[in-house]
Each structure stands twice: as C-alpha cells, then as structure tokens.
Amino acid sequence: MTPQAPHPHGHHHPPPPGPASLRSRGRRLTRQRELVWEALTATPDTHLSAEQIAAYVHQHAPSVSATTIYRSLDVLVTEGLVLRTELGADRSFYEPAHEHRHHHVVCRDCGKVTHLHDDLLGELPARVNAASGYVLGTEEITLFGHCPACREP
Amino acid sequence: MTPQAPHPHGHHHPPPPGPASLRSRGRRLTRQRELVWEALTATPDTHLSAEQIAAYVHQHAPSVSATTIYRSLDVLVTEGLVLRTELGADRSFYEPAHEHRHHHVVCRDCGKVTHLHDDLLGELPARVNAASGYVLGTEEITLFGHCPACREP
DNA sequence: CTCTCTATCGCCAGTGAATTGCGTTAGGCT
DNA sequence: AGCCTAACGCAATTCACTGGCGATAGAGAG
Questions:
Q1: Distance CA B54 to C1' C12 in A
Q2: Which nucleotides of D are covered by protein (CB under 7 A)?
Q3: Architecture of the structural domain at B99-153
C-alpha cells in the first residue's frame, strides 16, 4: 500500500530516512505524519510553510486538522527528520533534513530561496569564535539579498 | 526642559543623531517618539523588544498606547534612526542605528546577544555572489551559537 | 502669540500564525 | 483480540502586530 515501499526482504541501505524511523524512536507512525513527510519530499529542494503542507495533506486526507500538521512538524523536527528554517518572514518553513549542512539566501524582491553549501562560510566560525568566544551551532544561516533575475533592468 | 539639550547657539557636531532629525525629514517630533528613542539609548549596546520599550515609555508616560510604540518604531526604522533586528525569536528587537554595520551572535542558551564587526564576514559576500549570483543586501546577519559562559562545566 | 492644517495619537477591533485543553480515536505491543 | 496511551480533531486561546476612526497636538503661516 505504501507508495515507496522498499525491498520486501532487502537489507541494503543502512539508515532508511523517512517517517518509518519514528517507530524505532518510540513514536507512532500515523497516516498524518506520513502525509506531512510526503508533502515535504514530493518536490526536491523546496521550502514549504505549514500552510502549504496542510494544503498538500488535505488533497489526500481532507479531515486532517491544522493542529495535527503543526504537531507532526514539531515531532519530525524534534526527531531530526525535518529542518525548520526561519526565512525572515513571519512564518516558518520546513524541508527534509538533508545529508549535508547548508544555508540559505533569500531574495528580498521575489522571495526565491537558494541553497548555499556550508563550505562557503570558510573560516567564519573560527573568526566568530576568536572575536566573541561564541561557538557557532549547527543551525543554518539565512542571508538576504537580491537574486540575479530581480536585478535585471 | 529636554535633558540632553544641545548648545543653545552652538554649531559644532555636523549630523546630530536622535529623533530631532525627524523634523528636518518632514516628520513631527513628538514626546512619544522621544521616549521611544530614550528607551533605546538609555543603555548602550542593548537590543530591546517592543514590549520592553513600551515598559520604559510607560514609566514616563503611562498613557502611551502600544500601537504608538509600534508606529513610532516603524517611523524611526524608516528614517534610518533605528535598526530592526530579527534575533530568531518570534518578535523583533530594536537598537539605535549605529555608525558601522555589524552583525549578531545570539546564545541559544541564555539569549545573550553580541555584536560582530562587519569585517568578520571577509569574502563571504563575494563567495555568495560567485556561487549563487545573489548580491547580498546591507541587512545584518544573525548567527546562533553558545556563549563562553554557557559552555562552562 | 494665535490660527489652521493635518500628522499623530489613543482606543479598540481585527489578523494570522501557532498553541493549548479536552474528549475521542487508533497505533502497536502483549 | 484487547489494552494502554500516544496522537488526533475541534474549538477556543494566545501573542505580536496592524488597521480604522475620531480626537489631539506638532509646527509653519499670519
């Protein structure tokens, strides 16, 4: 029944990502949480708001409440499956926790979000530590600017 | 009457900071705006929320409405006298617009905010541009980490 | 100094994202 | 199959902030 059912008795890929891992973490795997995860992974490299996720989920199960969307996201974030990103607006955006750490540049004009590889920071963490004593966390960093398209004449 | 009244007929310092400059920009200098400015400059290097500013203002003029605090801050930000900073929480923080551009590191544990000189970014803007085509704006950047005190055993 | 014009204010209702309380439903382990 | 309780759905609530509107008070003109 599950769309992305893995090999019946295969035992290859070590850590299978996805909400199935919730069970081994003592949490229940519900249809609602599956759908939230589905919304987030339906299209790659997207950042969805809770509202957008709710819209997707409602296409498959109209009775799911907004409250459940929020609570499911909280669980997925807490369990490390989903990343909550503050993209400057008044709401949060979510994306599947990716393999490698990355950051975001948000266009002030059109709102477009682009990923930046962590390497780009260079010695920034070291410099920050030298200057302030702070040790940077693993949180993503959000930068703001203007994308190429919006700078056209 | 005004505490920090400048020289009666002096004409030294070129650009006098503070809300008095509002007048030359076609805006009115009201007691409420003075008080908001006072709250922000009462202690150096602080970042106050609208609520904290309201508390200060109310000590001197209890009848000032919260709406006015918000609108005054909007004006001061628009006129470039005050900087609105997004420190990650669900609310904005404000500080007098300083001379030089700077950024912030916020401690995830105690919430302490420390300034970082713009130089610290180094080639980051250039690298971001090379990698994404984006041109970074002049906005402050907020980083998160753990301050020295909170890392003590 | 007074008058007039209108920017600003204070009040209060309204937004919109997100949270909470509570009775009901349904995971999932035995 | 049954039980325990995590998780749900609903409705009401919180919280930071915004908008409408009549009243008030800056500040330039006279």
A1: 18
A2: 6-12, 15-20, 25-28
A3: 2-Layer Sandwich (3.30)
The closest nt to B70, taking CA to C1', is D17
| Number of residues in chain B | 153
**Residue A1: per-residue pLDDT:** 38
| DSSP states of A47-107 | -EEHHHHHHHHHHH-TT--HHHHHHHHHHHHHTTSEEEEE-SSSSEEEEE--SS-EEEEEE
Q: In CATH, which of 2.60.120.560, 1.10.10.10, 3.30.70.20, 2.30.180.10 is domain A27-98? A: 1.10.10.10
- Is the pTM higher than 0.90? no
Instruction: State pLDDT tens for residues B21-59.
Output: 999 999 999 999 999 999 999 998 899 999 999 999 999
The answer, yes or no, to whether residue A8 has pLDDT greater than 70, is no
